[in-house]
Each structure stands twice: as structure tokens, then as C-alpha cells.
Amino acid sequence: MKTIFKIKNSIINAVLLIAFLLVNTAAIAQTEKQEGSLGTLKQINAGLLNVGYTEAGPSNGTPVILLHGWPYDIHSYNEVVPILVSKGYHVFTPYLRGSGTTTFLSKDTFRNGQQAALAADIIAFMDALKIDKAVVGGFDWGARTAVVMGALWPERVKGLVSVSGYLVVNLEANLKPLPPKAELGWWYQYYFATERGKLGYSQNTYEFNKQIWQIASPLWNFDKATYDQTAQSFNNPDHVAIVIHNYRWRQSLEAGESKYDALEKRLAARPEIKVPTITIGSDFDGAFADGKAYANKFTGKYAHRILKGIGHNVPQEDPKSFAQAIIEVDGMK
Fold it and tell me: Most CB contacts within 10 A, which of 40, 101, 209, 297?
């Protein structure tokens, strides 16, 4: 009887194991399907981070790095990546610190959201993947990161696409008040300056970020599935800390790290961008959509595009125009 009992247990365990493998295989397949248009989801240790990123396209193609903003993630490039891959580009879309599957290697590392830190992350990412030079494009935080890379490490940037143009943060300038109408647009930055705001964002991240999407892109009728695909990336354990520090740092309410002081000093001088660049203005930029306010900061080969009826999330709202800008800037000599 004991022998029969053991055999039955073995059979039951085997069945349970097979069921477990089937369920998890299905889950993995579903994840791969979701990431399919972006390529394969991977992880790599780079600098202070273990970076989650997708990779697609031929390994011998020109490298392109696409950077997302807040509160967005790599899925903003769902339709951009296939276009670039069809043209032979080798495309990488990393999650920024505090987003998706990107995590810190040490629990003791300061959760820093300042601009130099984010840009240094992508340089470390390039080093880890042995990418010497790449076309870099982005919007929101991603655009700022790309522009900072072009300013501080021009030898690593073959071409640059920046939505909303020259977004380098100048802490001194940020201390000066704007006209009331302009100040209204930055309501969430003042909210984040308070402990109430930090707690509120922590407790209501999903609804808060959905509201930002609606405000920043009022004509974009995204569905729940589209938002939910990105909203998963907000579950990152460092998301709230990075977002809050980013905006408090911009208002000089919290300090950055001294190791970035030299880089920030160079950025405070508002350096010119000499690498080939295409900037994009949209409805989100209002009166600044024409790009005239920052055109003189780009002293290399330069062009500006204006997209009407498009909000802040340009790559997801108008993927063809964003992809075309990447292709065009790569061809600038």
C-alpha cells in the first residue's frame, strides 16, 4: 500500500508540475506577445542599475536609443520601433530609473531624479552594450535626457530627436516666477513639493498619471488597454521616490548628488548642441510649438517639425512622424 501511495503522490506531483509549467509558459508567451513590436525584453547591469530594455532589428544596423518620459514608458514606441526595424535600424528602448523592470543594484543608492543622473544612466547603458554611438530620440524626460547627452557627450550621439526642444533644466531660472497662466500648467510640480503630494501620488499613482495623460494629450482618445499596458511600469518600487525627487530638485527644494555637480555646472551654462538635431513641437507646447525660442541652441545641422492636433506623447500619437524624424536626422551630414 505504501508503494502504491508513493506512486500516486508522484503522479499527482508530476501533474501539478506540468500544470505549473503550462500556466507559466502561457504567461511568458503573453508577455513576449505584448513586447513583440518592441523586440525582446532583456536586462543588463549598467552603472548603478539593472536596466530593463527591449531590443529589435539587425545587430549590424545603426543603433537607435528611444527614451520615454513621465508618466509614460517604453510602450510609447510600440509603433515607432517596427518602422525603424523595417529600415534596418538596431533599436533599443530602455526603461528609465524608477520605471518598469529597471532597478537599482544597491538598496543604499540615493534615489535621484536629477537630469545629469538620468543621462549618465543611458551612457552607462551604452557602455554595457558596447554601443559607441547612437541616434537618440525622446520626449518629456526622455527628450531632456537625450539633449543632455548631446550637450555633455556629443561623441556618443550620432543624431538627436527632441520633442519640445531644448529642455535642459536651469535651476536658477526655475526660481523665477512665471505669469499666472503659465504657472497653472505646473500645478503637479507644486503638489509634489508637499508631503501631501508625495503621499497622494503614492496612493493614487494610477489615476494621477491617467489624468496627466488626458491633460497633456486632450485630443488623444487612448483606451484602457493602452493606458494599462504602460501603467504596469509605475509599480516599480522606486517610481514614486524618483518622480518626487525629480520635481523637487527642479524647484531647488531637494539637493542632487555632489558627484554630478560638475556636469550640472556645465548644463547651467546652457551649452549649445552641435550634433545633428530635429526638434518637434506639438499642441502641448502652445506658443512655443514653432521652436523659435530655442532654435539658436542647436548649432549643428538642424530642422524643426510642427505637429498639429498632437499632444505630448508624440511617438504614440504620431509614430510615423517620430520615426521619420529619426530616419531624417540619421541622414543629416
Answer: 209
Rounded mean pLDDT, 97-112: 98
Where would I find the H helices in the chain? 2-35, 80-86, 115-128, 141-152, 171-174, 180-184, 187-192, 195-203, 205-216, 224-231, 239-250, 261-268, 314-317, 319-330
Amino acid at 27: A
Q: What is the 3-state secondary structure (H, E, C) of 193-213?
A: CCHHHHHHHHHCHHHHHHHHH
Residue 146 to residue 149: CA distance in whole angstroms = 5
Encode pLDDT of 211-241 as tens digits: 999 999 999 999 999 999 999 999 999 999 9
Element at 38 (helix H, strand E): none
pLDDT at 176 over 80: yes
- Position 167: which residue type? L
Query: What is the CA 13 to chain-centroid distance, rounded?
Result: 44
pLDDT for residue 237: 98
- Res. 34 pLDDT band, cuts 50 70 90: very low
Tell me the DSSP string of 288-309: GGG-TTTGGGB-SSEEEEEETT
SS3 content of the chain, % helix, strand, coil (to 5): 55, 15, 30
**H helix runs in 36-160, sequence order:** 80-86, 115-128, 141-152
**Residue 33: how many other CB atoms lie within 10 Å:** 9
Helix (H) / strand (E) element for 104: namely: strand 103-104
Q: Which helix (H) or strand (E) holds 61?
A: none
Q: What are phi and psi of 257, to 5 degrees?
A: -105, 140
Separation of alpha carbons 210 and 224, rounded Å: 10
Alpha carbons 105 and 302: distance in angstroms, whole number: 38
Average pLDDT over residues 185-204: 97
Q: Are 112 and 257 in contact (CB under 8 A)?
A: yes
Using CA atoms, how far apart are residues 71 and 96, in angstroms rounded to an integer? Answer: 11
Does residue 329 contact residue 163 with C-beta atoms inside 8 Å? no
Distance CA 163, CA 312 (A): 8
Cα–Cα distances (Å) from 113 to 5, 302, 306, 326, in that order, read 59, 29, 29, 26
